[in-house]
Amino acid sequence: MPNSAHCAQCDAPSTTTCVCCQKPLCDEHKIMGHPLITFRxxxxxxxxxxxxxxxLLGDILFKELDQVPYCATCREDVAARRQTEQLKFAGAILxxxxxxxxxxxxxxxx
Length: 110
Known about the structure:
Elements: E1 16-17, E2 24-25, E3 31-33, H1 39-52, H2 57-62, E4 68-70, H3 72-109
Antiparallel strand pairs: 1-2, 3-4
């Protein structure tokens, strides 16, 4: 969606806006990337889809996401936030594995 303002980085007319900070950007200064999906959004989407339309789970989990424009500053921030969300996901997977393996092992030992 074109914007009549000038790019935040130069004097060129803007063609889009950053999805995070909403600064106007020209084609030269926009950095395309995948949108940030938080751990909470992922779990909520999977849970809701599993209950309402389980046949669409494959689309949610494996479909390629559309690219969105970021400015250089926001791209770095999104990269750091994405790493934090990946660590949350890995921690949750480890917790589930510990519960799946630990509870039966505890029951067998007692």
